[in-house]
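Revision sheet: structure tokens.
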Amino acid sequence: MSITLIIQDARWRKLRGHSARIKRAVKTALAEAGAPDHADLTVMLTTNGRVQKLNAAFRGKDKPTNVLSFPAGLDGYLGDVAIAYGVTAREAKEAKKTLLDHTTHLTVHGVLHLLGYDHVTTRQANKMEPLEVRILKTMKVANPYEVQ
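Predicted:
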């Protein structure tokens, strides 16, 4: 398994332990979801502007979002996950969560999208969200869907 981590926004570098935690989140999500051991992927820690451009180009939504996933559909390569610093930091602050914990959740969320999970319908969300919660619990990250 190869996890490529690309940091395009220097503010991510100030987040202590982010690299190890993101890689652990990817590995845990893949293992818990039953993905093949040889699956490779890329996580890009980037800016709101970059995510906005990707969101506009691929989803027709000209605004930044916290995380985007781009399944590759290639044998052995799952795809790419992009996480926007500004949106993620704002959401973490508003929810009174650490930036590292929120980034961990978004990483898990993005990886599950690469594996075909979704949350558009209630039925899909009822499958994806409990899996996210279980994965995060193994990493000692609180349930992101529980109102505090």
